[in-house]
Amino acid sequence: MLKYQSRIKIYLINFFFIKFFFNLLLSKILNNKKIVNQLERNLSKLFNTNHSKFIGQCREGIYWSIKYIIDKTGKNEVILSPYTLFYVINMIINAGGKPVFVDLKYNSLEINPNLIKEKINKNTSSILLTNLSGVSSDIDYIKDLATKKGIYLIEDMAVSLGSSLNDKNKYCVYGDIGILSFQAMKNIQCINGGALIYSNNDFNNWLNVNIFNLKEQSNIFLFKRLFYIFIVNFFTNTKIINFYFFKLIKFAYLENKNEILKFIRPDHEPYLEEIFPSYYFKKITLTQAKFVSNQLENLEINNEKRKKNAYIYRKTLSKIKEVTILDDQNFAYKNYLEFHILCENRDKLFFFLLSKNIDVRKFYYRNCSSLEIYRKFASKCINADNIENLIITLPCYPSYSKFNIYKIVNAITEFYEK
């Protein structure tokens, strides 16, 4: 039996494609805004906030949050980690903000809180925390710092949904505004969507005015996205086809075929975005909102399965001195969308894993502070550079088999023993 498994897994409920397709067909007839409002209230209740608002994309949440804060404070500097998607930086700039990059802690995906303090000045409007490995271990310090300085704290929770600091606060927002993503590769997905969660009544009133005239996302766009996700799901979940699809990816890496690799890395060619595509800034549909609500019921179950997979990686890989497990503190309360490690001789290890027919991710995010398109905001972020050059992310999704986890571990062990 073929033991190969793709690192890619799209989280789907049973009969997802059929249900989503027919719900979309009926949505224009049976659309009821009251149901969407009720689902938003349910999301608020889950996160213990006064309000939540479904939005077209997570990145749009960045835009609305920064734009409101600038309008409210008259200040435009946004302190953030450089290790993120370039789309985030574009949204800050288009909202009228000025990104101020602060380096990561050493061998960590978390922003350095001491450097945040150094960068705060009279024009600082907000701190944007990108939660890449769960809730920041310094969240209490950063929140207290923001409160004392009278600046806003925003949490980008796109990949940390379900992470917490303890059993009491499994779902909560530590900052003034939290931003969720329901994009196709996340642990909860509705094709293309996100949400803002917050308790600020003034922000809620401002947001309602600004998004009132937005049109609902078109069915044509959602049908196209649904078809794309169906194709990805087919190639990564059909055993034989999946394996030969990986062979194509392997060939692209070995021969450096950029025309193929650009489909693997979402930020393959970063650019400064000044004119947004037509599908940006749309209201989420009833169908999308219902699918988010349905999937929330299984979030904790899936998190527990991912945690068990992460525990195997942690227990076995921590014995290899050339491997560093990132942000190992607070292990029991993270969601482990993927498992992050730093590896000596990363590129050689990656190609060694390819030779063993093991599918892992070489790229995660970028050090945006070093990109030419953001040169006027450039900052020296040595730790972010280090992370970009050494990171490998390992598959951790609930249905990823123990056999393949140990196959990865054994291959990494073999590489460093040589």
Explain this structure to me?
With 418 residues, the chain is an alpha/beta fold. Helices cover 45% and strands 13% of the residues. The strands form 3 sheets. Strands 1-8-7-6-5-2-4 form a 7-stranded mixed β-sheet, with helices on both faces. The protein is globular. The two termini are 29 Å apart. The model has no long low-confidence stretch (mean pLDDT 90).
> What distance lies between the first and last C-alpha atoms, to the nearest angstrom?
29 Å
Helix/strand-derived class? Answer: alpha/beta
**Which spans have pLDDT < 50 for at least 5 consecutive residues?**
none
Number of strands: 12
Strand content: 5-15%
Number of helices: 15
How are the secondary structure elements laid out?
Layout: H1 16-30, H2 33-47, E1 51-55, H3 58-73, E2 77-80, E3 83-84, H4 86-94, E4 98-101, H5 113-119, E5 124-130, H6 139-149, E6 152-156, E7 177-181, E8 194-198, H7 201-211, H8 219-237, H9 239-255, H10 258-261, H11 286-296, H12 299-317, E9 323-325, E10 338-343, H13 346-355, E11 366-367, H14 382-390, E12 391-395, H15 402-417
Parallel strand pairs: 2-4, 2-5, 5-6, 6-7
Antiparallel strand pairs: 1-8, 3-11, 7-8, 9-10, 10-12
Helix pairs in contact: 1-8, 1-11, 2-11, 3-4, 8-9, 12-15
Note the main attributes of this structure.
418 residues, 15 helices, 7-stranded mixed beta sheet, 45% helix
State the gist of this model.
The protein contains 15 helices and twelve strands. The chain is α/β, with parallel strands linked by helices and 418 residues long.
